[in-house]
Amino acid sequence: MITLTTPPQINSILGGSSLIAYNKLVIAPFTMDAVSQTINAIIRLTSTANTTMQPINGTLRINLATAELLVEVIQLDFYRRIILTGPQITSIIGQIEAAQAQLENGLVSLAVIAGVRTSGA
Q: Which is nearest to 73 in space by CA: 100, 103, 97, 43?
């Protein structure tokens, strides 16, 4: 969870002026694909001040083949595209590979899968 420094404010009454801050951002669920080197996620914004307000959803997409990171929240008219640098791509690849290794090692150690884990996709 990320608490936003300057949260977007949404009017809670149609035609009114009662603004509610959407200050909580959660990235879930998400998928990391070691083969295609992509990460896809749902971004969910909520208000801790008024929990009856509906969440606002957006998307996060990272494609390491094109070096792109995209964040989009249509309801807030927000779109951000960032071109990743070489070191950023290397870092993200390392995170994907580490998560893959932890999951595979866990399955082997729990004896769900019999085998020896090796690196690579």
A: 43
> What pTM, to 2 d.p., does this model score?
0.84
Amino acid at position 69, single letter:
L
Structure tokens at 28: 């879930």
Domains of the chain by residue range:
2-84
**What does the mean pLDDT of the chain come to?**
92
What is the maximum alpha-carbon separation in the chain?
62
Name the 3-class secondary structure at 26: strand
Q: Which distant-in-sequence residues (6+ apart) come within 8 Å of 118 by Cβ?
A: none
pLDDT in tens, 35-75: 999 999 999 999 999 999 999 999 999 999 999 999 999 99
What pLDDT shows up at residue 82? 97
| 52 close to 24: Cβ distance less than 8 angstroms | no
- 3-state secondary structure at position 45: strand
Q: What is the dihedral of CA 119, 97, 28, 40, to 10 degrees?
A: -100
